[in-house]
Amino acid sequence: MSGTADEPSGVAADEPGRTGAQPGPQRIEIVELEAVHVAVIRSMVAAEDVPDFMSDALGMVAAALREAGVAPAGPPFARYFAMTADGLDVAAGFPVAEPFLGAGVVHPGELPAGPAAVAAFVGPYQGIETAWATLRHDIDALGRTRGDNPWEVYFIGPGSGVDEADWRTELVWPLGPVTAGR
């Protein structure tokens, strides 16, 4: 279980995530994901430019989908590939029901199938790095290995008209095998 800033962190993989508008990271769930087709824009972005990239990329992906007559099949997301001296390698876009052929800078992709640790984060994005750190800790405490390229799903966020204290983001970290001794 991931605690809020005032609670200790623990682990509860078999309990569903807490709901409601409690701020901070929530309990984690271990789930089995199915592969999801996506339409994305991927770029190297300086850390300070990520909010602008996200806004621009999601707007461009939404426009490309509209132009192609394709509706998003879920909320927007961002997937993180690597942090280098050049910045953050990130993709932003939307899930789609069928493979998207691409249009200009918008490319098809896929969120992978397999086991993942999932946690909800409620609150402004300034606290999300703490939620990621808690999720990393909780995955390690479960004896699982962290896979590559985690992502965030934005259920309620900028442009929603909802106060940022009530924004809801889902953190998804693909998992590797259980480590020895567990």
Order of helices and strands: EEHEEEEHEEE
The number of strands is: 9
The residue fraction in helices comes out at: 10-25%
Structural class: alpha+beta
Main sheet makeup = 9 strands, antiparallel
CATH class annotation of the largest domain: Alpha Beta
Uncertain regions: pLDDT < 50 for 5+ in a row?
A: 1-21
Tally of helical runs: 2
Could you provide a short overview of the structure?
With 182 residues, the protein is an alpha+beta fold. 18% of the residues lie in helices and 40% in strands. The chain has two domains: 24-33 and 114-178; 36-111, Alpha-Beta Barrel (Multidrug-efflux Transporter 1 Regulator Bmrr, Chain A).
Produce the secondary structure layout.
Blueprint: E1 24-33, E2 36-45, H1 50-68, E3 77-84, E4 87-96, E5 107-111, E6 114-122, H2 128-141, E7 144-146, E8 151-156, E9 168-178
Antiparallel strand pairs: 1-6, 2-4, 2-5, 3-4, 3-8, 6-9, 7-9, 8-9
